[in-house]
Design a protein that fits this description.
alpha+beta, Aminopeptidase, Nonspecific Lipid-transfer Protein, Chain A, 3 domains, twelve-stranded mixed β-sheet, 12 helices, 19 strands, 24% helix, binds coenzyme A
Amino acid sequence: MSFDPSGVPVDPAASAALARKGLDYRLLDPADREAFEAWIEADHRGFHHARPRAAGIEHEVRVMSERRVHGVYDTTAADPAIPVATVSSWPTGLSVPGGRSVDGWAVSSVTVSPTHRRRGIARALMEGELANARNAGAAVAMLTVTEATIYGRYGYAPAASSATVEVDRGRSHWIGPEAPGRVHFVEPAGLREVAAAISRRAVARTPGEIDRWSGVLDRMLGLADPESDAARALRAVRYDDEHGQPQGFAVYRITREPNHPGWLEFDALAAATDDAERELWRFLLEVDFVTGVRGYLRSVDEPLPWLLEDRRAVAFRDVVDHLWIRIVDPVAALAARRYGAAGELVLEIDDPLGYAAGRYTLLAAADGRAHVHGPGGDDETTDAEAPRGRERSRRAASDDVSPRAASRATAPRGLRLGARELAAIYLGGVRPSALLRASRIAELSPGSAELADRMFASERTPHLSIWF
Ligand SMILES: CC(C)(COP(=O)(O)OP(=O)(O)OC[C@H]1O[C@@H](n2cnc3c(N)ncnc32)[C@H](O)[C@@H]1OP(=O)(O)O)[C@@H](O)C(=O)NCCC(=O)NCCS
Protein backbone atom coordinates (compact mmCIF):
# COMPACT_ATOMS: atom_id res chain seq x y z
CA MET A 1 0.00 0.00 0.00
CA SER A 2 1.53 3.35 -0.90
CA PHE A 3 1.19 5.95 1.79
CA ASP A 4 2.28 9.56 1.95
CA PRO A 5 3.18 10.06 5.62
CA SER A 6 2.63 13.79 5.36
CA GLY A 7 -0.77 13.32 3.73
CA VAL A 8 -2.61 13.45 7.07
CA PRO A 9 -2.64 16.87 8.79
CA VAL A 10 -0.81 17.25 12.12
CA ASP A 11 -3.48 17.07 14.81
CA PRO A 12 -3.93 20.64 16.09
CA ALA A 13 -5.35 19.50 19.46
CA ALA A 14 -2.28 17.36 20.25
CA SER A 15 0.01 20.13 19.06
CA ALA A 16 -1.74 22.70 21.28
CA ALA A 17 -1.78 20.38 24.33
CA LEU A 18 1.98 19.84 24.02
CA ALA A 19 2.70 23.52 23.30
CA ARG A 20 0.96 24.38 26.59
CA LYS A 21 3.62 22.24 28.29
CA GLY A 22 6.37 24.11 26.43
CA LEU A 23 6.96 21.20 24.04
CA ASP A 24 7.17 20.98 20.23
CA TYR A 25 5.17 18.27 18.45
CA ARG A 26 6.87 17.61 15.12
CA LEU A 27 6.22 15.36 12.14
CA LEU A 28 9.63 14.13 10.98
CA ASP A 29 10.71 14.55 7.38
CA PRO A 30 12.05 11.22 6.04
CA ALA A 31 14.77 13.18 4.23
CA ASP A 32 16.10 14.52 7.55
CA ARG A 33 18.49 11.69 8.37
CA GLU A 34 19.91 13.35 11.48
CA ALA A 35 16.45 13.84 12.99
CA PHE A 36 15.59 10.22 12.24
CA GLU A 37 18.73 8.91 13.94
CA ALA A 38 18.03 11.01 17.04
CA TRP A 39 14.45 9.76 17.05
CA ILE A 40 15.67 6.11 16.80
CA GLU A 41 17.96 6.72 19.79
CA ALA A 42 14.99 8.00 21.83
CA ASP A 43 12.80 5.08 20.75
CA HIS A 44 15.43 2.48 21.72
CA ARG A 45 16.09 4.18 25.03
CA GLY A 46 12.35 4.36 25.71
CA PHE A 47 11.95 0.60 25.24
CA HIS A 48 15.14 -0.17 27.21
CA HIS A 49 16.81 -1.64 24.11
CA ALA A 50 20.53 -1.50 23.41
CA ARG A 51 21.62 1.07 20.85
CA PRO A 52 21.34 -0.45 17.36
CA ARG A 53 24.45 -1.12 15.27
CA ALA A 54 24.96 0.70 11.97
CA ALA A 55 23.03 -1.95 9.99
CA GLY A 56 20.20 -1.80 12.54
CA ILE A 57 20.00 1.98 12.17
CA GLU A 58 19.82 1.65 8.38
CA HIS A 59 17.00 -0.84 8.78
CA GLU A 60 15.11 1.40 11.23
CA VAL A 61 15.49 4.44 8.96
CA ARG A 62 14.10 2.40 6.04
CA VAL A 63 11.14 1.18 8.09
CA MET A 64 10.37 4.56 9.66
CA SER A 65 10.56 6.45 6.37
CA GLU A 66 7.45 4.52 5.29
CA ARG A 67 5.54 5.63 8.39
CA ARG A 68 4.25 8.78 9.92
CA VAL A 69 6.81 9.56 12.60
CA HIS A 70 6.26 12.11 15.35
CA GLY A 71 8.69 13.37 17.96
CA VAL A 72 8.07 15.66 20.92
CA TYR A 73 10.94 18.07 21.58
CA ASP A 74 12.00 20.02 24.64
CA THR A 75 14.22 22.87 23.44
CA THR A 76 15.47 23.38 27.00
CA ALA A 77 16.85 19.80 27.34
CA ALA A 78 20.64 19.23 27.40
CA ASP A 79 20.35 17.54 24.00
CA PRO A 80 17.32 19.16 22.35
CA ALA A 81 17.80 17.15 19.14
CA ILE A 82 16.72 13.95 20.87
CA PRO A 83 12.94 13.85 21.25
CA VAL A 84 11.48 13.38 24.73
CA ALA A 85 8.66 11.32 23.28
CA THR A 86 8.13 9.23 20.14
CA VAL A 87 5.29 7.65 18.19
CA SER A 88 4.95 6.18 14.71
CA SER A 89 1.88 5.10 12.75
CA TRP A 90 0.78 3.83 9.36
CA PRO A 91 -2.29 2.57 7.53
CA THR A 92 -2.57 -1.20 7.26
CA GLY A 93 -5.12 -3.95 6.76
CA LEU A 94 -6.33 -5.92 9.77
CA SER A 95 -7.77 -9.37 9.06
CA VAL A 96 -11.32 -9.80 10.31
CA PRO A 97 -13.67 -12.82 10.37
CA GLY A 98 -14.79 -14.12 7.00
CA GLY A 99 -11.38 -13.90 5.30
CA ARG A 100 -11.76 -10.16 4.98
CA SER A 101 -9.73 -7.11 5.91
CA VAL A 102 -10.64 -3.79 7.50
CA ASP A 103 -8.74 -0.53 6.98
CA GLY A 104 -6.67 -0.07 10.11
CA TRP A 105 -4.25 2.43 11.60
CA ALA A 106 -1.28 0.86 13.38
CA VAL A 107 0.31 2.81 16.22
CA SER A 108 3.78 1.93 17.44
CA SER A 109 6.95 3.31 19.10
CA VAL A 110 5.02 4.99 21.95
CA THR A 111 7.69 6.17 24.38
CA VAL A 112 8.05 9.06 26.80
CA SER A 113 11.43 9.84 28.32
CA PRO A 114 11.65 9.08 32.07
CA THR A 115 12.65 12.74 32.48
CA HIS A 116 9.23 13.82 31.17
CA ARG A 117 6.87 11.09 32.41
CA ARG A 118 3.37 11.64 33.80
CA ARG A 119 2.85 15.10 32.35
CA GLY A 120 0.20 14.01 29.87
CA ILE A 121 2.55 13.60 26.90
CA ALA A 122 1.42 10.05 26.09
CA ARG A 123 -2.20 11.18 26.35
CA ALA A 124 -1.62 13.97 23.80
CA LEU A 125 0.10 11.51 21.44
CA MET A 126 -2.57 8.84 21.78
CA GLU A 127 -5.44 11.24 21.24
CA GLY A 128 -3.53 12.65 18.25
CA GLU A 129 -3.24 9.15 16.78
CA LEU A 130 -6.99 8.57 17.06
CA ALA A 131 -7.53 11.79 15.11
CA ASN A 132 -4.91 10.66 12.57
CA ALA A 133 -6.62 7.28 12.21
CA ARG A 134 -9.96 8.90 11.51
CA ASN A 135 -8.47 11.50 9.14
CA ALA A 136 -6.68 8.75 7.23
CA GLY A 137 -10.00 6.94 6.71
CA ALA A 138 -9.25 3.99 8.99
CA ALA A 139 -12.07 2.19 10.79
CA VAL A 140 -9.88 0.69 13.54
CA ALA A 141 -6.74 1.87 15.36
CA MET A 142 -4.50 -0.82 16.82
CA LEU A 143 -1.37 -1.50 18.78
CA THR A 144 0.51 -4.13 20.76
CA VAL A 145 1.14 -3.24 24.37
CA THR A 146 3.86 -3.55 26.98
CA GLU A 147 1.35 -3.17 29.83
CA ALA A 148 -2.39 -3.84 30.02
CA THR A 149 -3.22 -0.72 32.03
CA ILE A 150 -2.22 2.04 29.63
CA TYR A 151 -4.59 2.07 26.64
CA GLY A 152 -8.10 1.27 27.90
CA ARG A 153 -8.58 4.96 28.76
CA TYR A 154 -8.40 5.78 25.04
CA GLY A 155 -11.01 3.17 24.09
CA TYR A 156 -8.66 0.29 23.20
CA ALA A 157 -9.35 -3.26 24.35
CA PRO A 158 -7.65 -6.62 23.88
CA ALA A 159 -9.06 -8.32 20.78
CA ALA A 160 -6.59 -11.11 19.91
CA SER A 161 -4.31 -13.06 22.20
CA SER A 162 -1.22 -15.16 21.82
CA ALA A 163 0.80 -17.62 23.87
CA THR A 164 4.23 -19.17 24.15
CA VAL A 165 3.84 -22.83 23.19
CA GLU A 166 6.37 -25.15 24.79
CA VAL A 167 6.71 -28.78 23.73
CA ASP A 168 8.57 -31.46 25.63
CA ARG A 169 10.54 -33.07 22.79
CA GLY A 170 10.78 -36.46 24.55
CA ARG A 171 6.99 -36.79 24.77
CA SER A 172 6.10 -35.38 21.38
CA HIS A 173 5.31 -38.58 19.46
CA TRP A 174 3.52 -37.50 16.29
CA ILE A 175 0.17 -39.14 15.44
CA GLY A 176 -0.98 -36.58 12.86
CA PRO A 177 -1.28 -37.35 9.15
CA GLU A 178 1.64 -37.47 6.74
CA ALA A 179 1.81 -34.30 4.64
CA PRO A 180 2.00 -34.80 0.87
CA GLY A 181 4.75 -32.18 0.41
CA ARG A 182 8.23 -31.77 1.92
CA VAL A 183 10.35 -29.44 4.00
CA HIS A 184 13.55 -27.86 2.58
CA PHE A 185 16.31 -25.85 4.22
CA VAL A 186 16.67 -22.45 2.55
CA GLU A 187 18.88 -19.41 3.06
CA PRO A 188 16.92 -16.66 4.85
CA ALA A 189 17.79 -14.08 2.18
CA GLY A 190 16.50 -16.44 -0.53
CA LEU A 191 13.20 -16.79 1.30
CA ARG A 192 12.41 -13.08 1.27
CA GLU A 193 9.93 -12.93 -1.63
CA VAL A 194 8.32 -16.28 -0.96
CA ALA A 195 7.94 -15.34 2.72
CA ALA A 196 6.06 -12.18 1.73
CA ALA A 197 3.66 -14.14 -0.50
CA ILE A 198 3.08 -16.89 2.09
CA SER A 199 2.63 -14.32 4.85
CA ARG A 200 -0.04 -12.52 2.82
CA ARG A 201 -2.05 -15.73 2.57
CA ALA A 202 -1.43 -16.73 6.20
CA VAL A 203 -2.51 -13.27 7.40
CA ALA A 204 -5.67 -13.40 5.26
CA ARG A 205 -6.91 -16.55 6.96
CA THR A 206 -6.43 -15.36 10.53
CA PRO A 207 -8.51 -12.59 12.13
CA GLY A 208 -6.26 -10.38 14.24
CA GLU A 209 -3.22 -10.59 11.97
CA ILE A 210 -2.09 -7.36 10.30
CA ASP A 211 -0.55 -6.93 6.86
CA ARG A 212 3.19 -7.48 6.93
CA TRP A 213 5.43 -4.59 5.93
CA SER A 214 8.78 -5.32 4.32
CA GLY A 215 10.76 -4.40 7.47
CA VAL A 216 9.02 -6.99 9.64
CA LEU A 217 9.93 -9.74 7.17
CA ASP A 218 13.54 -8.54 7.22
CA ARG A 219 13.45 -8.70 11.01
CA MET A 220 11.97 -12.24 10.96
CA LEU A 221 14.57 -13.49 8.49
CA GLY A 222 17.51 -11.81 10.24
CA LEU A 223 18.10 -9.50 7.28
CA ALA A 224 17.82 -6.28 9.28
CA ASP A 225 21.34 -6.81 10.64
CA PRO A 226 22.59 -10.03 8.98
CA GLU A 227 26.01 -10.00 10.68
CA SER A 228 24.61 -9.85 14.21
CA ASP A 229 24.95 -12.98 16.36
CA ALA A 230 21.15 -13.23 16.57
CA ALA A 231 20.75 -13.20 12.78
CA ARG A 232 23.58 -15.69 12.15
CA ALA A 233 21.94 -18.17 14.53
CA LEU A 234 18.75 -18.33 12.43
CA ARG A 235 17.89 -21.31 10.21
CA ALA A 236 15.04 -21.14 7.72
CA VAL A 237 12.89 -23.93 6.31
CA ARG A 238 10.18 -23.88 3.67
CA TYR A 239 7.33 -26.31 3.11
CA ASP A 240 6.47 -27.06 -0.53
CA ASP A 241 3.26 -28.92 -1.36
CA GLU A 242 3.06 -32.02 -3.57
CA HIS A 243 3.15 -29.75 -6.65
CA GLY A 244 6.35 -28.05 -5.47
CA GLN A 245 4.51 -24.86 -4.51
CA PRO A 246 5.79 -23.07 -1.35
CA GLN A 247 3.01 -23.01 1.27
CA GLY A 248 4.77 -22.22 4.54
CA PHE A 249 8.02 -21.30 6.24
CA ALA A 250 9.59 -21.24 9.68
CA VAL A 251 12.66 -19.48 11.03
CA TYR A 252 14.27 -20.94 14.15
CA ARG A 253 17.38 -20.93 16.30
CA ILE A 254 18.79 -23.44 18.76
CA THR A 255 20.02 -22.11 22.06
CA ARG A 256 22.40 -24.45 23.85
CA GLU A 257 25.46 -24.92 26.01
CA PRO A 258 28.34 -26.91 24.48
CA ASN A 259 27.72 -30.70 24.66
CA HIS A 260 24.18 -30.31 25.99
CA PRO A 261 20.98 -30.57 23.97
CA GLY A 262 19.40 -27.17 23.53
CA TRP A 263 16.00 -25.62 23.02
CA LEU A 264 14.70 -24.99 19.56
CA GLU A 265 12.99 -21.58 19.59
CA PHE A 266 11.10 -19.77 16.89
CA ASP A 267 9.27 -16.48 16.34
CA ALA A 268 8.03 -17.20 12.85
CA LEU A 269 6.01 -20.11 11.51
CA ALA A 270 3.70 -18.92 8.75
CA ALA A 271 1.47 -21.31 6.86
CA ALA A 272 -0.96 -20.72 4.02
CA THR A 273 -2.40 -24.26 4.32
CA ASP A 274 -3.14 -26.68 7.14
CA ASP A 275 -0.73 -29.22 5.61
CA ALA A 276 2.06 -26.66 5.76
CA GLU A 277 1.28 -25.74 9.35
CA ARG A 278 1.29 -29.37 10.48
CA GLU A 279 4.39 -30.38 8.58
CA LEU A 280 6.45 -27.41 9.78
CA TRP A 281 5.48 -28.18 13.38
CA ARG A 282 6.41 -31.80 12.83
CA PHE A 283 9.77 -30.88 11.35
CA LEU A 284 10.59 -28.59 14.29
CA LEU A 285 9.54 -31.23 16.84
CA GLU A 286 11.64 -33.95 15.24
CA VAL A 287 14.98 -32.10 15.13
CA ASP A 288 17.39 -34.29 17.14
CA PHE A 289 19.56 -33.32 20.11
CA VAL A 290 16.95 -30.91 21.36
CA THR A 291 15.23 -30.94 24.78
CA GLY A 292 12.18 -28.94 23.80
CA VAL A 293 10.62 -26.60 21.29
CA ARG A 294 9.39 -23.13 22.17
CA GLY A 295 7.28 -21.07 19.76
CA TYR A 296 6.57 -17.45 20.64
CA LEU A 297 3.37 -15.53 19.86
CA ARG A 298 1.49 -18.67 18.84
CA SER A 299 -2.28 -19.04 18.73
CA VAL A 300 -4.04 -20.04 21.95
CA ASP A 301 -6.05 -22.31 19.64
CA GLU A 302 -3.04 -24.15 18.17
CA PRO A 303 -4.15 -27.61 16.89
CA LEU A 304 -0.84 -29.12 18.05
CA PRO A 305 -2.13 -31.08 21.10
CA TRP A 306 -4.39 -33.04 18.70
CA LEU A 307 -1.39 -34.07 16.60
CA LEU A 308 0.57 -35.72 19.41
CA GLU A 309 0.02 -38.96 21.27
CA ASP A 310 0.63 -37.21 24.58
CA ARG A 311 -1.26 -33.90 24.54
CA ARG A 312 0.41 -32.96 27.82
CA ALA A 313 3.69 -32.66 25.97
CA VAL A 314 2.33 -29.23 24.96
CA ALA A 315 2.09 -26.34 27.42
CA PHE A 316 0.55 -22.95 26.65
CA ARG A 317 2.46 -20.39 28.70
CA ASP A 318 2.34 -16.60 28.96
CA VAL A 319 -1.08 -16.25 27.37
CA VAL A 320 -1.33 -12.51 26.72
CA ASP A 321 -3.78 -9.94 25.38
CA HIS A 322 -1.50 -9.22 22.46
CA LEU A 323 -3.50 -7.12 19.95
CA TRP A 324 -5.44 -4.14 21.27
CA ILE A 325 -7.82 -2.35 18.97
CA ARG A 326 -9.94 0.80 19.08
CA ILE A 327 -12.93 1.29 16.80
CA VAL A 328 -12.92 4.82 15.33
CA ASP A 329 -15.60 4.23 12.67
CA PRO A 330 -18.14 1.63 13.85
CA VAL A 331 -20.20 1.65 10.65
CA ALA A 332 -17.19 0.84 8.47
CA ALA A 333 -15.73 -1.59 11.02
CA LEU A 334 -18.94 -3.53 11.57
CA ALA A 335 -19.65 -3.76 7.82
CA ALA A 336 -16.15 -4.99 7.05
CA ARG A 337 -16.40 -8.37 8.76
CA ARG A 338 -18.66 -11.36 8.22
CA TYR A 339 -20.96 -12.67 10.94
CA GLY A 340 -21.42 -16.14 12.35
CA ALA A 341 -25.23 -16.04 12.43
CA ALA A 342 -28.10 -14.05 10.93
CA GLY A 343 -29.80 -11.53 13.17
CA GLU A 344 -30.62 -7.94 13.97
CA LEU A 345 -28.80 -6.31 16.84
CA VAL A 346 -28.89 -2.76 18.15
CA LEU A 347 -25.65 -1.46 19.67
CA GLU A 348 -25.94 1.58 21.91
CA ILE A 349 -22.34 2.69 22.29
CA ASP A 350 -21.02 5.05 24.88
CA ASP A 351 -17.71 6.72 23.95
CA PRO A 352 -16.44 9.73 25.92
CA LEU A 353 -14.00 10.52 23.07
CA GLY A 354 -16.90 10.59 20.61
CA TYR A 355 -15.62 8.39 17.77
CA ALA A 356 -17.96 5.43 18.31
CA ALA A 357 -20.78 7.05 20.29
CA GLY A 358 -24.35 6.48 19.15
CA ARG A 359 -26.98 3.94 18.27
CA TYR A 360 -26.14 1.46 15.52
CA THR A 361 -28.24 -1.27 13.95
CA LEU A 362 -26.44 -4.33 12.66
CA LEU A 363 -28.34 -6.61 10.30
CA ALA A 364 -26.55 -9.80 9.41
CA ALA A 365 -27.74 -12.17 6.71
CA ALA A 366 -27.34 -15.94 6.75
CA ASP A 367 -24.34 -15.71 4.41
CA GLY A 368 -22.54 -13.58 7.01
CA ARG A 369 -22.77 -10.28 5.16
CA ALA A 370 -24.04 -7.32 7.09
CA HIS A 371 -25.79 -4.04 6.71
CA VAL A 372 -24.99 -1.41 9.33
CA HIS A 373 -27.05 1.67 10.02
CA GLY A 374 -25.28 4.41 12.01
CA PRO A 375 -26.49 7.35 14.07
CA GLY A 376 -25.70 9.97 11.42
CA GLY A 377 -27.89 8.14 8.88
CA ASP A 378 -24.74 6.60 7.36
CA ASP A 379 -25.23 3.08 6.07
CA GLU A 380 -22.77 0.55 4.88
CA THR A 381 -23.08 -2.94 3.44
CA THR A 382 -20.47 -5.65 3.15
CA ASP A 383 -19.53 -6.03 -0.48
CA ALA A 384 -19.92 -9.56 -1.83
CA GLU A 385 -17.31 -9.28 -4.58
CA ALA A 386 -13.82 -8.48 -3.32
CA PRO A 387 -12.76 -10.71 -0.42
CA ARG A 388 -10.06 -8.36 0.98
CA GLY A 389 -8.65 -4.87 0.80
CA ARG A 390 -10.57 -1.66 0.40
CA GLU A 391 -13.64 -3.52 -0.69
CA ARG A 392 -16.36 -1.89 1.29
CA SER A 393 -18.88 0.50 -0.15
CA ARG A 394 -20.89 3.13 1.60
CA ARG A 395 -24.34 3.19 0.14
CA ALA A 396 -28.00 2.71 0.90
CA ALA A 397 -29.08 -0.76 2.00
CA SER A 398 -28.83 -3.26 -0.83
CA ASP A 399 -31.68 -5.70 -1.21
CA ASP A 400 -29.79 -8.82 -0.27
CA VAL A 401 -28.77 -7.76 3.27
CA SER A 402 -31.50 -5.21 3.81
CA PRO A 403 -33.83 -5.38 6.80
CA ARG A 404 -36.17 -7.42 4.59
CA ALA A 405 -33.57 -10.08 3.84
CA ALA A 406 -32.03 -10.32 7.31
CA SER A 407 -33.56 -12.91 9.56
CA ARG A 408 -36.95 -11.58 10.48
CA ALA A 409 -37.59 -14.60 12.67
CA THR A 410 -35.27 -13.02 15.30
CA ALA A 411 -36.85 -10.23 17.33
CA PRO A 412 -34.68 -7.09 17.49
CA ARG A 413 -32.25 -7.34 20.37
CA GLY A 414 -29.48 -5.09 21.57
CA LEU A 415 -26.59 -4.30 23.83
CA ARG A 416 -25.55 -1.18 25.70
CA LEU A 417 -21.77 -1.07 25.76
CA GLY A 418 -18.70 1.16 25.78
CA ALA A 419 -16.18 1.67 22.98
CA ARG A 420 -13.79 -0.68 24.79
CA GLU A 421 -16.30 -3.50 24.94
CA LEU A 422 -17.13 -3.02 21.25
CA ALA A 423 -13.41 -3.34 20.49
CA ALA A 424 -13.14 -6.48 22.65
CA ILE A 425 -15.96 -8.35 20.86
CA TYR A 426 -15.22 -7.07 17.35
CA LEU A 427 -12.95 -9.89 16.13
CA GLY A 428 -14.86 -12.63 17.93
CA GLY A 429 -12.15 -13.37 20.49
CA VAL A 430 -14.24 -12.26 23.47
CA ARG A 431 -17.83 -13.43 23.88
CA PRO A 432 -20.36 -10.68 24.62
CA SER A 433 -21.93 -13.02 27.22
CA ALA A 434 -18.63 -13.03 29.16
CA LEU A 435 -18.76 -9.22 29.27
CA LEU A 436 -22.40 -9.42 30.38
CA ARG A 437 -21.41 -11.75 33.22
CA ALA A 438 -18.68 -9.28 34.17
CA SER A 439 -21.30 -6.51 34.13
CA ARG A 440 -19.33 -4.64 31.48
CA ILE A 441 -22.27 -4.53 29.06
CA ALA A 442 -26.07 -4.55 29.46
CA GLU A 443 -28.78 -6.21 27.38
CA LEU A 444 -31.57 -4.12 25.90
CA SER A 445 -33.74 -7.26 26.01
CA PRO A 446 -33.20 -10.78 27.37
CA GLY A 447 -31.34 -13.10 25.01
CA SER A 448 -29.42 -10.26 23.33
CA ALA A 449 -25.99 -11.41 24.55
CA GLU A 450 -26.64 -14.95 23.39
CA LEU A 451 -27.55 -13.65 19.92
CA ALA A 452 -24.50 -11.38 19.95
CA ASP A 453 -22.31 -14.38 20.87
CA ARG A 454 -23.51 -16.22 17.79
CA MET A 455 -23.32 -13.23 15.46
CA PHE A 456 -19.85 -12.07 16.51
CA ALA A 457 -18.38 -15.61 16.62
CA SER A 458 -15.34 -16.07 14.40
CA GLU A 459 -14.63 -19.23 12.41
CA ARG A 460 -11.03 -19.01 13.60
CA THR A 461 -9.74 -17.78 16.96
CA PRO A 462 -8.26 -14.30 16.52
CA HIS A 463 -4.49 -14.32 16.77
CA LEU A 464 -1.60 -11.93 16.13
CA SER A 465 1.83 -13.50 15.70
CA ILE A 466 4.08 -10.42 15.51
CA TRP A 467 4.93 -7.37 17.61
CA PHE A 468 4.45 -3.99 16.03
C1 LIG B 1 3.75 4.30 28.95
C2 LIG B 1 4.32 5.70 28.76
C3 LIG B 1 4.35 5.98 27.25
C4 LIG B 1 3.42 6.70 29.46
O1 LIG B 1 3.82 8.04 29.18
P1 LIG B 1 3.40 9.31 30.09
O2 LIG B 1 3.63 10.52 29.26
O3 LIG B 1 4.06 9.21 31.40
O4 LIG B 1 1.84 9.13 30.27
P2 LIG B 1 0.78 10.31 30.57
O5 LIG B 1 1.36 11.25 31.56
O6 LIG B 1 0.27 10.90 29.32
O7 LIG B 1 -0.36 9.50 31.25
C5 LIG B 1 -1.65 9.34 30.66
C6 LIG B 1 -2.44 8.42 31.53
O8 LIG B 1 -1.87 7.10 31.48
C7 LIG B 1 -1.54 6.67 32.79
N1 LIG B 1 -0.32 5.88 32.66
C8 LIG B 1 0.82 6.26 32.07
N2 LIG B 1 1.70 5.26 32.08
C9 LIG B 1 1.11 4.23 32.69
C10 LIG B 1 1.53 2.93 33.00
N3 LIG B 1 2.74 2.49 32.68
N4 LIG B 1 0.65 2.12 33.63
C11 LIG B 1 -0.58 2.56 33.93
N5 LIG B 1 -1.03 3.80 33.66
C12 LIG B 1 -0.19 4.62 33.03
C13 LIG B 1 -1.36 7.93 33.61
O9 LIG B 1 -1.57 7.67 34.96
C14 LIG B 1 -2.43 8.83 32.99
O10 LIG B 1 -3.70 8.45 33.49
P3 LIG B 1 -4.94 9.49 33.50
O11 LIG B 1 -4.81 10.38 32.29
O12 LIG B 1 -6.13 8.61 33.42
O13 LIG B 1 -4.79 10.26 34.77
C15 LIG B 1 5.75 5.81 29.34
O14 LIG B 1 5.70 5.41 30.66
C16 LIG B 1 6.80 4.95 28.64
O15 LIG B 1 7.48 5.43 27.73
N6 LIG B 1 7.02 3.68 29.07
C17 LIG B 1 8.04 2.82 28.50
C18 LIG B 1 7.74 2.40 27.06
C19 LIG B 1 6.38 1.79 26.96
O16 LIG B 1 6.01 0.92 27.72
N7 LIG B 1 5.61 2.22 25.94
C20 LIG B 1 4.31 1.69 25.67
C21 LIG B 1 4.45 0.90 24.42
S1 LIG B 1 3.07 -0.09 24.10
